[in-house]
Amino acid sequence: MSIHKKSDGVFEVRWREGGRNKSLRVHGSHELAKKVLRKKMSVRDENRHLDVKKEVNFRMSALIDRYWTHYGAKKRSANREKSVLDGIRSDLGRRFVREVDGIAVSRWYEDLTVIRNLSPGTAVRHFNVMHHMMAKASTIWSKETGIDRNPADQVEVRRPDDQRDRYLSEDELRRLKQALDDKAYRKGTTKINKTFYRLRLIVLIAVTTGMRASEIFGLRWGDVMYSEGLLAVRAKLKGGKMRYVPMPIELAGELGRFPVVIGEDRIFPPKAGASGGRQRVEGSFEDLLERAKIEGFRFHDLRHTFASWYMMNGGDLYELAKILGHSNIKMTERYAKLARHHIAKTSSTAREIWKLMEQPICGTANVG
User: Counting Cβ atoms within 10 Å, is residue 317 exposed (0-12), middle (13-18) or buried (19+)?
Assistant: First the structure.
């Protein structure tokens, strides 16, 4: 650092900052030049102690790969997770992680419903993956990614109503079964309608066991326990325990008549030419609902139908949680109100207990 007189009343102040030589011409006295130099040196010294982070050029595509290896691939829903991550890669993969701020995440989330036309529930599931990944990026991987806050925390998510109560009434159940039976066999013959029979059995399993679609597609013939009247669900619970659901005799009969694909142990293997690892219920489910004259219904509501009728017929809430595979009883408590509405059905049990209490005890003398 130095001060050089260039001419009368003109001085050049020189100093070094950030590894570079800097200079400034000051018009005035030598004392003024000294004050300017002291000010520049003071600012320089203050900047040395500022917590300025170096920009890290870590791309979102690299983050997605790391997240998939450490978390996504290990989840029960790995196939769905892979699909979500592929979508994030397509939209944001070329950006640096530090560039994906709250605004970028918000725009990505909005595009899920506006451009990709995803349902609100599906969009939320995609957002949950993004939120979890960015949480890891801003904590355990913050040194590599260059961020220390989760940008997804700045996004307001419109979560759909998770307390959907739609289930089939008694009359709708009859109409559904009739629609299933009408196309079970080829018209005018006793031969099975193979195209429709697959959907028929999937629907019957869903409505009589409460299994999810993904769990039904994962069923193998070895999971059908005819002697015990149970179906083993391959999606394992926390702790590695297997889950079992009751299999009514009628459903066992339907499974016994269902054709086996030679060389395939899955009951519902992917159809020939199907792409992707995740199976979905055929679009003919909507046709089925139309023929049964059932409106405002979706496939997952078959699970709600099973749970609702289970409770309305005196079922136990904790047993239902085990059957449905709920890890938290609060998820099952939504069906508790149905049990209260039909609690009068159990009054006969209380009356029998009351009668038993009023009967005299044999061999005991009357008091007094």
Answer: middle
Q: Is residue 12 within 8 Å of 25, Cβ to Cβ? A: yes
CA–CA distances in Å: residue 6 to residues 20, 36, 137, 171, 280: 22, 16, 54, 101, 82
CA–CA gap between residue 367 and residue 276 (Å, rounded): 80
- Strand, helix or coil for residue 168: coil
CATH topology assigned to domain 60-154 = DNA polymerase; domain 1 (1.10.150)
Q: Give residues with Cβ within 8 angstroms of 240, minimum separation 6.
A: none
Query: What global pTM score does this model have?
Result: 0.56
Summarize pLDDT for 205-228 with one digit per residue, the tens: 999 999 988 889 889 999 999 999
> How distant, in Å, are the alpha carbons of 7, 64, 187, 267, 353 from that of 197?
100, 40, 13, 12, 48
CATH number of 170-270+281-346: 1.10.443.10
Q: pLDDT per residue over 291-343, tens digit each?
A: 999 998 989 899 999 998 888 888 888 898 888 888 778 778 877 777 665 55
Which of 311, 323, 284 lies closest to 206 in space, CA to CA?
A: 323
> Do the Cβ atoms of 206 and 302 come closer than 8 Å?
yes
Tokens in use for 313? 């017929």
Domain ranges of the chain: 2-48, 60-154, 170-270+281-346
Q: What is the pLDDT of residues 88-121, one digit of tens each?
A: 999 999 999 999 999 999 999 999 988 888 888 8
Number of H helices, E strands in the chain: 16, 6
| 257 closest CA partner among 302, 333, 193, 209 | 193
The backbone torsions φ and ψ at residue 21, rounded to the nearest 5 degrees and listed phi first, read -80, 135
Strands (E), 115-229: 224-225
157, containing H or E segment: none
Residues in the chain: 368
Count CB atoms within 10 A of the CB of residue 366.
Answer: 5
| Token couple for 291 | 């023929």
Residue appearing with tokens 């806050």: 149
pLDDT band at 122 (very low <50, low <70, confident <90, very high): confident
